[in-house]
Amino acid sequence: MAFIMPAFVTAKLNLILLSLLLLVSTSSIAAKFSIDRAIITKIGHGYSLQASINYSLTPRVKEAVANGVPIVFIQELEIIHALPLLGDFWQWQSTLWSTSLRYELRYHALTNQYVVNDLDTEHHRNFISLEAALDALGSIDAFTLPPEHMTETDNLHIYLRSSLDLLALPTPMRPGALISSKWQLGSPWTEATWQ
Amino acid sequence: MAIALIKRLSSGTTPYFSLAILLVILAYLLTAATSDSSKLNDLFLVIFGLGLAILVLLTAILVRSLHRLYKDFKQREAGSRLTIRLVSLFVLLILVSTTIVYSFSIHFLHRGINSWFNVQVEQALDDALELSRSSFGIRMRTLLRQTRMMSGVLSELPDNELNHGLRELNQLSGAIEMSIWNMNGQLITSSIENPAIMVPNRPDDAIFRQLEQQEDYIGLDPGDNDELQLRAAVRIPKKSVLQQDKMLHVMFPVNERLSSLGKTVQNAYTDYKELSYLRQPLITVFTLTLSLIVLLTVLASIWFAVWISRRIVHPLQELADGTQSVASGNYNTQLTTSNHDEIGFLVRSFNQMTQRLTQERNASQRSHRMLEQQTNYLGAVLGSLSSGVITLDDGHRLKTANVASSAILDVKLQHHLEYSLSHISDKHSHLDTFVEMIMEQIKHHHNWQQQLELHPKKRRQTLMCRGTLLPNDAGWVIVFDDITTLLQAQRNAAWGEVARRLAHEIKNPLTPIQLSAERLQHKYGALLPDDQTDLLNKLTNTIIQQVDAMKDMVNDFSDYARNPGLQLAKHNIANLIKEVLALYQSHPHHSISLKQNTPDIELRIDSNRFRQVLHNLLKNAIEASEEANLPVTIEIEYSQVQHNHTNWLELSVLDRGPGIPDEMLTRLFEPYATNKLKGTGLGLAIVKKIIEEHHGMVWAENRSVNGACIIIRLPLEDPDL
Fold first, then answer.
1. Which of B24, B12, B3 lies closest to B300, judged by CA?
2. Which of A104, B112, B429, B540 lies most in the core, judged by the most C-beta atoms within 10 Å?
3. pLDDT, tens digit, for every residue of B175-215?
4. CA-to-CA distance for B43 and B32, rounded, in angstroms?
C-alpha cells in the first residue's frame, strides 16, 4: 500500500534535518548499527536488494542477551519517489512502499546456542556464537523488491535502516533502555545504490 | 486556556471527587501495568506518562491554591490565618504518615523482590542445567561415534551410490535427516525422513569452519516448538587426493521425555536468569511507580487539605465579615449556611442576633422620627407664637429660643444656643436688665411672673415675663410678651375717651359763654361811662379770646378723639406735599424746602388727613424753632425704602431747631407730651394716630448736628388699604 506523504524538502535539506534529528535524539552517541553495503540488482524482470548491516552490540545489550533477555531487531525499508521541482533543491517526495522486518535474538542456555526467530514467518535459525547470529542477521542476500513499484525506476530511491525494538523489551527494562544511550543503536537511513 | 482549565479544576467540589476516582484508576492501571501477565504491560510507559502529566497538572493546581492562600494571608483576609494553620497541620499529618508508609513500602519492596532470589535456587538451576547437558553429552558422544562410522561407510561408496547409501543409513540410524555437503557449503545429496520437507537444514558456517579445522561437531539444537534435536557433522574421509572434501550432516531426534525435561530445565533456567537480571530494573520501576502514586496521593491530599480547610474556615470567615459589618453599623447582615453542626448553629444564632438588632434599630429609628416630628411640631407651634419662648437648662444655658423671642429682644438668640445667659448679656448690653431679672427669679425654685422695662435703641419696651420650672429641675421655660404696644393702645384709648368727654362737656357751654360775653359788651357797653367801657371791653374781649382758645383746644381734642372712616384714594405724594408747602412759603423768614429724590410715588391715602399730618409736623417744627429763636429752616425728604420685605414710603421732616430732649423721645407722640409754650400737646399724638390708621409708623430722632427729625413710614402696597 502506497502512502503518499508530501514534503517540500530538498535532498540536502532532508539530509541535514535527518542529521539534526539524529543529533538530538541520540545526542552525542554515535550509532552502533551501520549499513555497510546496500545494492539493488536487476534479476530477470525484477529487482533484489543485497545489503550488509553491521550489528555491533554494546556490552549492556550483550549482557542482556547473555541473561536470557530476547532482543528484537527491526529492519526497515522504504521506496521513495522523488520528483525534482527545482533541480536538486526542491523535490516532491512520496513514499511508495515501506516494510519492516522483525527478528528476535535470544540465547538458549541448554544448547549454548543463539536462536534467531523471524517474527513474521516464525522460522528460526540456530547459531553457535553471537557473532555468527549477528552476521546472519546483518546479511540480506536477495530481498525481492515489490515489482509493482519497480516498473519505473527513474527518480526512485530505496532507503534502509535498522534498529532495536526497545518497546519489545521486558517492561522493567523499557524506561531505562529508552533513556539510556547504551540502547540507542539504530542506524541512520541509508540509500541503496543501483547496480 | 491552560490557566482557565486550572481555574475551573481548582474550584467547586466536583474536581476533588473526579481526581480521587482518577487517582484510584491510575493506581490500578499502574499496578496492573507492572505485572507481567497483564495486557496493560505494553502500555506501562503510556500510563506512567499519564501519571506524570497528572502530577504536573496537580502540582500547578496546588501551587495556584497555595499561592492564593499566601496572597490572602499577606492581604490579611479574614480567616486566612486559621486556614493556613489548618493546612499546615493537615500537610504535616499527610507528610508524616505518607513518609512512614512510603519508607516501609520501599523497604518491603526491596526485601520482597530480593527474597525471590536465592543462592541455593540459583545453584540448583545451574546444576540442573549442567546435569541436563551431561545427560545429553553421553548421548551426543554415542551419536558422534555413530556418525563417524556412517561417514566411514559413506567414504567407501562411489559418488553415484552416495544417495542410496545415505537413505539406507538414514533408515538404519533413525536420524531425522542426513545430508552430504561439500566444504563450500553446497549440498551434494540428502535424505529426509519427513517427506514434507524438501530442503535439508543447512549447517551453520561456523560448523563448516570448525570442520575445516579437522574438528567434528556434535551439538544440541533447539528445533521448532523448542523441541530438542542433536546435530552432528563429521568430515567424510577421502579415498584419494582428487576427491573433494565432503561433510556428513545428521540431525538426530531426542527422546521425547528427555526433550521435555530439557525444555523444562531450559525454561526455568532462562526465566530465573532473566528475572535475576531484571531485578534492579524491576525494583526501579516498582519504586518509580510507588513514588508516583505516593506523590500523586500526597499532592491530592494537600490540595484536598487546602479545600477542606477553606470549607471549614469559610463560615467562620463569613461570621468574621458579618461581625465586622455589624460593628460598622450594617445590621441587615444575614449569612447563609446549610450545615447542621456547631458552626451552622453559630451562623443561625448570628442571623437571629442581626434580625433582632435590625428590629430594635428600626424601632429606635421610628421613635427618633416621631421625636423629630414632635420637635418640629413644637418648633412650628413655638415659631408661630407671638410670645417669646426660651428654655434654659440647669446650668442656665440657652437650649431653645423661638423666632418671636429673637424679634422681641432684637437679638438672634439662635446663634447663642448652648451659651449661658450671662454670656449673652455680655454680648448685648441692652439685655442686662432682662438677664438680671431672670437670674434673680430662678434662684427661687418656683414659677414666677414679672413685668420688665427695657430700653433698646432709646426705645421703651415693656415685657411681661413668666418663668416655669421644668420637671426634675431640668431647667426653665421662660415665656415673655412685648406689651409695649398694648400699653400704648390702652393709653391712647384712655386719652381718646378723655378728649371725647372734654370735647363734649366743654364745647357745649363755650358758645353761650362767648355769646353772653358779646351780649354783655353790646348791651352794657353803651350804659357804662367811658372809662369803664374800656375795662368792660377789655374783660369781655379776654373772655371771648379765651373762649376761642378753649374752642381751638376743644377742636383739637375733638380731632384726636374722632375716628371717621378713611377716604382712601391714590395720590401723588409730591403733589400733596407741594400743596401744603404752598401755604407756608409766603412767610419771609421761613425756609421750607422739599428734596425730591424719587419722583412720582403714588399711594392710597386719605389726602385730608395726610395734609393734617403735614400741617401738624410743619407747625410743630416752626414753633420749636421760633421758641428757641432759631431760624426756621425745614427740609422735607421722601423716598422709597425696603424694610421687612415690604416697600415703604419714608418721609422725613427735618428742622434746625433745638432738638428733642432724650427723656421726651420715647413719649413724644403721647398726648400732652410737650415742652413747648404754645399748643395743646396733641399735634404729634394726632400725627401718630393718623399714621397708624394708615398702618404706618412714626418716630422721632435728633439730628447729629442740631435739630430734630420726624420720620414717617407708610406702606406702599398694603392690601388692607
1. B24
2. B540
3. 889 999 988 888 888 888 888 888 888 888 888 888 888 88
4. 10
Distance from CA of A49 to the nearest CA of B (A): 22
Q: Which residues pair with B698 in a beta bridge?
A: B712
Among all chains, which residue has been given the C-alpha cell 447542621? Answer: B340
Does A42 touch chain B if contact means CB atoms closer than 8 Å?
Answer: no
Q: Higher pLDDT residue, A78 or B241?
A: A78
Q: How far is B102 from chain A (nearest CA, A)?
A: 20
**Mean local confidence (pLDDT), B84-100:** 92
Of A109, A126, A132, which has the smallest distance from its Cβ to B270's Cβ? A109
- B36 and A171 within 8 Å at the Cβ level: the answer is yes
Nearest CA in chain A to B276: A67
The residue count of chain B comes to: 721
User: B708 forms bridges with which residues in the sheet?
Assistant: B702
Distance of alpha carbon B304 from alpha carbon B43, whole angstroms: 29
> CB of B580 within 8 A of CB of B611?
yes
Query: What is the ipTM score, two decimals?
Result: 0.74
Contact by Cβ (8 Å): A84, A90: yes
Identify the closest residue of chain A to B228 by CA–CA distance.
A111
User: Is residue B215 left, alpha or beta, with left meaning phi > 0 and alpha meaning psi from -120 to 50?
Assistant: beta
Q: Angle at CA B28, nearest 5°, toward B23 and B32?
A: 145
- Choose the closest CB to B266 out of A63, A110, A173: A110
Given a contact cutoff of 8 angstroms between Cβ atoms, the answer to whether B144 and B219 are in contact is: no
Task: Locate the chain B residue with the closest alpha carbon to A168.
Answer: B42
- Give CA–CA dist A47/B618, Å, rounded: 157
For all residues of chain A together, what is the average pLDDT?
Answer: 81
According to the model, what pLDDT value does residue B98 have? 92
What are the DSSP calls for B343-401, one per residue?
HHHHHHHHHHHHHHHHHHHHHHHHHHHHHHHHHHHHHHHHHH-SSEEEEEETT-BEEEE
Mean pLDDT of chain B: 84
Q: Which of B132, B220, B230, B267 to mutate to test the interface with A (most CBs of A within 10 A)?
A: B220
d(CA A46, CA B104) in angstroms, rounded, equals: 67
List, in sequence order, the alpha helices (H) in B213-255.
none
CB contact under 8 Å between B220 and A132, yes or no, is: no
Bin B125: left if φ > 0, else alpha if -120 < ψ < 50, else beta.
Answer: alpha
Environment class of B420 (CB within 10 Å of its CB; exposed 0-12, middle 13-18, buried 19+): middle
Torsion angle, CA of A3/A9/A10/A14, rounded to 10 degrees? -80
A47-79 burial: b if 16+ Cβ within 10 Å, else e? bbbbbebebebbeebeebbebbbbbbbbbbbbb
Condensed to tens digits (0 to 9), the pLDDT of residues B607-619 reads: 888 888 998 899 8
* pTM for the predicted model, two decimal places: 0.54
Choose among B173, B259, B274: nearest CA to B222: B259
Does the CA dihedral B598-B657-B705-B686 come out positive or negative? negative
HEC secondary structure over chain A: CCECCCCEECHHHHHHHHHHHHHHHHCCCCCCEEEEEEEEEEECCEEEEEEEEEECCCHHHHHHHHCCCCEEEEEEEEEEEEEEEECCCEEEEEEEEEEEEEEEEEEECCCCEEEEEECCCCCEEEECCHHHHHHHHHEEEEEECCHHHCCCCCCEEEEEEEEECHHHCCHHHHHHHHHCHHHCCCCCCEECEEC
Give CA separation, B509 vs B34, B555, B680, in Å. 155, 14, 20
Burial class of B527 by CB neighbour count within 10 A (0 to 12, 13 to 18, 19+): exposed
B666 touches B459 (CB < 8 A): yes
Q: Return the residue of B nearest to A171 by Cα.
A: B41
Residue-wise over B620-643: b if at least 16 C-beta within 10 A, else e?
bbbbbbbeeeeebbbbbbbeeeee
> Residue with C-alpha cell 422620627?
B369
